[in-house]
Design a protein that fits this description.
By secondary structure, this protein is an alpha/beta fold. Helix content is 59%, strand content 7%. It is built from 16 helices and seven strands. It has a seven-stranded mixed sheet with strand order 3-2-4-1-5-6-7. Helix 9 (277-301) packs antiparallel against helix 11 (341-360) and helix 9 packs antiparallel against helix 15. It is rod-shaped and about 170 Å long. The model is unreliable at 82-87 and 323-335 (pLDDT under 50).
């Protein structure tokens, strides 16, 4: 992975996480680590067609002698050294006249940059950056120093025997230690003690620098000869070695690898935040168990409402159970003959409890609210539609199947049995009439007439009474249809919430998989063997 590939990858990842934050899947806290990500490198200051110089920055607190050290390294008084130096408000760049520095990234306050050129060919491969003091009383000065850090290859952290334990400087060192190559200088060594060197080395080793470069220097403001022996020659030699192109490339590659690992860390946190499928499944199971009890509660609470709706519908006072169109500007959702305001409020309270449960499980609220909003407002329409369907179905086929079969059978018997009895009586009348005419017998008597009439009446009356008794009740059919529709409607809106939770869980899993794909794109940006050079290893902090 080169710098251009990393910049493209970082831009795409940043756009992706920002879109997730806009959709509510991530919070501002999740985005904060990405705000510290930067694809800036020292190479952006130079024309990539030529070998660029090594950019060296001086990092340290007030009064430690950074400018004096720079002047001694440059062999000339190129940095201002005065009583005003501790409150310097600008960044000073010193480069050879052949080096062009005209590609400053957007956003840098160029009005606070001082650029000077020199003619020393021995320093052609170096660019010196003198930055404001990191412990400046003015926050703007510290911010300016931090904004320039990504443009620097080698940071020379300058301390003094009195101030090498400075909290502000040490804190910034720990924050920035993995982004650059570092070397350390204890200036004003004529006031130092060997014990301080050992103590400072111990601090650096605890901070991740296994074998750091630590030099003792004595740089007077007048650029005179040092009063005591120091390590200045060793520091000059190290800088000359690091200015070699191969080592510059290694430092560049290390900085790129560190930024890629930082991006991986941020993406890993995002993936962990999005790996919530089990939590969504648990929330759905909790909802289904809770909704079962709420359903029974709503059905019980609407018992008298359903009876009234059935009676009004049969009486013709209700032409339909579907809700009317909501009036313009109406805030509350419309209600109908079955789904009254109490039921709507109970439904909304249950959804609110679900949102609270989701918050307790650290699930994103915005996607949940967006998924539940149409369900919350559409419950009354869903229930009314199902109630109307079941009501009309129940009225078209009242009673149960056995009742309807017996009812039709009794209706047929009420017609056929009297006809059969009448036929039997007629047959007997004709038979006796024939026998009486041929055998000179008497006619049928009163008893036969009475019994025949009773037989015909009973043949009709018994099935007719059963027919009336088995006739399905329209009122009961309407009530049964309304209650069945209510039960189906409640099950449907509850299932809608379950489906939404399942969809959110699957969406969370897909986003987590996407984060994993981004993580793979950040893997192995450089070969660790590139940093086997002992000089480079000593400049880098282990993480």
């Amino acid at each position: 992975m080169n710098q251009q590939e990393y910049s493209t990858l970082r831009s795409e990842v940043l756009a992706w996480v920002q879109a997730l934050a806009h959709a509510g899947w991530l919070s501002r806290d999740d985005l904060e680590p990405f705000a510290g990500q930067d694809d800036t490198s020292p190479g952006t200051l130079f024309d990539g067609s030529v070998h660029r110089p090594l950019v060296i920055g001086f990092f340290g607190g007030t009064g430690v002698g950074k400018s004096s050290l720079l002047n001694r390294l440059a062999g000339a008084a190129i940095a201002r050294v005065s009583v005003e130096r501790p409150t310097s408000r600008e960044v000073s760049l010193y480069a050879h006249e052949s080096v062009r520095l005209d590609r400053f990234p957007a956003g840098l306050p160029l009005e606070r940059v001082r650029l000077a050129h020199h003619h020393n060919d021995a320093l052609r491969r170096l660019v010196w950056v003198d930055m404001p003091d990191i412990d400046s009383a003015e926050t703007a000065n510290r911010d300016l120093a931090l904004r320039w850090l990504p443009h620097i290859d080698l940071l020379i952290y300058v301390v003094s025997p009195e101030r090498y334990r400075d909290d502000c400087g040490w804190r910034m060192l720990m924050e920035q230690r993995g982004t650059h190559a570092w070397t350390f200088v204890m200036n004003q060594w004529d006031h130092g003690d060997p014990m301080q060197i050992q103590d400072f080395l111990g601090l650096l080793k605890n901070g991740g620098f296994a074998e750091p470069y630590l030099f003792r220097t004595q740089c007077a403001s007048d650029d005179g000869a040092p009063a005591v022996a120091d390590d200045f020659a060793a520091l000059e030699s190290l800088i000359e070695e690091l200015a070699d192109k191969h080592l510059v490339d290694q430092i560049d590659a290390q900085a790129l690898a560190y930024r890629a690992r930082q991006l991986q860390t941020c993406l890993g946190a995002v993936r962990s935040r999005l790996e919530q499928r089990p939590a969504w499944e648990a929330l759905r199971a909790r909802w289904e168990a809770q909704w079962e009890g709420v359903t029974a509660e709503i059905e019980g609470g609407l018992a008298w409402v359903t009876e009234r709706a059935a009676a009004e519908f049969l009486a013709g006072r209700l032409k339909s159970l579907n809700p009317p169109e909501p009036a313009a500007g109406r805030d509350a959702p419309p209600v109908n003959a079955v789904w009254d305001p109490w039921a709507q409020q109970r439904w909304e309270d249950t959804l609110a409890a679900l949102a609270v449960d989701a918050d307790d499980r650290r699930l994103p609220r915005q996607p949940l609210q967006q998924a539940l909003a149409p369900l919350s407002a559409g419950a009354f329409a869903t229930v009314a539609k199902r109630v109307e369907e079941r009501l009309r179905g129940a009225l078209s086929r009242p009673g149960n199947r056995l009742q309807r079969v017996l009812y039709r059978l009794c209706w047929m018997l009420a017609l056929l049995l009297p006809l059969a009895a009448s036929g039997w009586v007629t047959f007997n009348v004709v038979t006796f009439y024939y026998r009486s005419s041929t055998e000179h017998l008497g006619y049928l008597g009163i008893d036969f007439a009475v019994h025949s009439a009773l037989l015909i009446i009973l043949a009709w009356l018994l099935p007719y009474l059963l027919y009336r008794a088995l006739k399905p009740s329209t009122e009961r059919a309407a009530l049964r249809g309304i209650r069945a529709g209510l039960e189906v409607g409640l099950a449907e809106i509850g299932a809608g919430v379950s489906q939404s939770l399942d969809h959110l869980g699957r969406r969370s899993e897909l986003l987590s998989d996407t984060a994993s794909e981004w993580l793979k794109s950040c893997e192995n940006p450089t070969d660790d063997k590139a940093f086997e050079d002992s000089r480079i290893a000593r400049l880098l902090a282990k993480r």
